[in-house]
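Notes for week 9. Today we move from apo structures to complexes. The key idea is that a small molecule is not decoration. When we ask for a structure prediction with thiamine diphosphate present, the ligand SMILES becomes part of the input, just like the chain. The input block below holds both the sequence and the ligand string. Read it once before you look at the output, and try to guess where the molecule might sit.
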Amino acid sequence: MTEQVKIIHVVGQTSRKMQRNRKMIHHSVGFDPDHQLYNKTSRNFRVAAAELQNIDTAPAEIERVIRECFVKSAPVYIFVPIDMVNEHVLLSALDNPIDLTMPRTAAIEQSISAAIEAVASAIYASKNPAVLVDCLVQRHNSTAETKLLVDKLKIPVYSTNMGKGIVNETDPNYIGVYNGAISTPGLSIAIEASDLILVLGSLPCDTNTGGFSRKVRPENVIDITPTTVTIQGKTTFKDCCIKPFLAKLATSLISQKVPKVTKPILPPTAETDLETDAITQSWIWHRIASFLRPHDVVFGETGTAAFGLPDATFPEDITWITQTYYGSIGYATPAALGADLALAELHAEKGNPRGRTVVITGDGSIQLTIQELGTMIARNARPIIFVINNAGYTIERAIHGADHPYNDVAPYNWQAALRLFGMSEEQTKGCFHRVTTKQEFEEAVAKRSVTDPERVQMVEVVMDRLDCPWRLLSQIATRGEAVVKEMERAGFNVRRPVLKN
Ligand SMILES: Cc1ncc(C[n+]2csc(CCOP(=O)(O)OP(=O)(O)O)c2C)c(N)n1
Ligand SMILES: [Mg+2]
């Protein structure tokens, strides 16, 4: 729900008779158990549910919630009592594919047309407009439409931490990541000077807005959400589905009327730590960027990775998956399994490019879901997993208790992990790489087994326990001076964000 991701959760239940009789079947809660308790509990975490109690309506109910899942881009549930699986339905129910297109009524068309007219007039009347692209564009399947729009506009384009990879970051109009006061030098000044910002698919949580430090006035914004368009803080058009809206906007704009904007020239972002052999946070994200290739699916796990990777300029056509709003550690590893199986399937069945799945996770996060390595190995998935071994919860050390033992994690033997989860001794040799210096990192990522993997690759990257990306420390610093002092006492080198009122 929080991240607006499509999930179809199929939940088995006790038989309808047991439900009626409130039998004390194992896994129920309490005496006289309500067998719908878990169903009821999930109400705030879904947009639709099919409670399959009646076989006559079950096929239509399943189709209804699958459609809801796609149209609303959010989780749905299908509850299947165990006795329902023996019921029969007509095979013809499968004849017609489920309609996953966005609703198109006359009222919606009218709203979209009126919104397009208003957006176009605002753009034509502006002097130095810009575009800010955020992750809900991708979650609502509107990446292609966004690309069409920015190609047409040819004005400066920015992304957010979570919205990276949607537009081409190597395009001359792409400026960088806007994260409020926690942006690279000059960047926030450049975008905040725009008299009109088209904000697409915004997810305005703290970790995606530099702790709410964006200085953008509503009267300078056209806010295009998955379902509404608001013009400069005044008029809101409802029922504007983002996908058809952006597609139509891109085709209806008249290029000659869009103002020509001089691209802001920003100071180069200097890399630091070049003199040390050690692998540092300021070095690794740029280096990982040059490892990436078009069509890769890249996961930045919550931790230093999610805050470091926004420094990387991606090649074209990267799918960037991170979830720093909900921020549940352990997400990246099983999600990467799903992504890699999907990439293989889409390649085999539709001829899509077989991109690679690249995961950058932490030694803490991966411990929550490491068993999925077993599924990866068993199913011949082949993600490249970079495990940042910094001896614990480094992000949490920066937040509080740098030396407290609750931020330590059990030091695993990562090489043995692949073996434990089912890879043969022989294969493990070509699939595990432990790197402690920049040189070793370079050697590992130059190997063909890593660049073009045939099975799971694990690169254990050893880094200092107190090394953090500047963006993370600045993010934490938005919480106030006392927090900065605590970080500095612990030895962190904090780049203070300038928080204007
Ligand atoms: C399920 C869950 N538990 C706890 C947290 C709090 N938390 C956020 S990041 C983090 C530590 C991540 O450590 P690691 O993966 O090693 O990344 P590092 O910062 O060290 O690179 C923790 C415990 C969370 N976000 N989600
Ligand atoms: Mg760690």
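Residues 281-490 form a domain with the Rossmann fold fold (CATH 3.40.50.970).
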